[in-house]
Amino acid sequence: MNERPRPPLAVALHYNRCGAPRVVAKGGGALAQRIIDTAREHDVPLQQDSALACALSRVELGNEIPRELYVAVAQVLAFAWNVTGKRDVG
């Protein structure tokens, strides 16, 4: 059975340590590639997780992530902080 490759999907989060992280950009295909390229241009760490991206893509822009995604997103934030050397999270 031939599976067609899925177009890329990207979701950008913003977390200012107040409340839960918010979805600030999301899209598929060419828009996803623009989100990825912009993140790379600004040295924003990227983590590939298609299941999480799919779940986050259902969150409205500007909204906080739902509680059921807290653990998965916390792991992404820990990864990003580790990559950038930001160990102080408080």
Largest beta sheet: what is the strand line-up? 1-2
Radius of gyration: 14 Å
The rough form would be described as globular
- Could you give me the name of the CATH homologous superfamily? secretion proteins EscU
Overall mean pLDDT score? 90
**Continuous helix count:** 3
Report the sheet with the most strands, covering strand number, pairing sense and barrel closure.
2 strands, antiparallel
The appropriate CATH architecture is 3-Layer(aba) Sandwich
Kindly state the number of beta strands: 2
Tell me what portion of residues adopts beta-strand conformation.
5-15%
What ranges have pLDDT less than 50 throughout 5 or more consecutive residues?
Answer: none
Order of helical and strand elements: EEHHH
What's the CATH class label?
Answer: Alpha Beta
Description of the molecule:
The structure is a single chain. The chain is α+β, with helices and mostly antiparallel strands and 90 residues long. The protein has one domain: name from scop (3-Layer(aba) Sandwich), CATH 3.40.1690.10. It has 3 helices and 2 strands. It has a two-stranded antiparallel ribbon with strand order 1-2. β1 and β2 form a beta hairpin. The longest helix is centred in the last third of the chain and has 15 residues. Pfam families: Bac_export_2 (PF01312). One of its GO terms (biological process) is protein secretion. This is Flagellar biosynthetic protein FlhB. Keywords: Bacterial flagellum protein export, Protein transport, Transport. Belongs to the type III secretion exporter family.
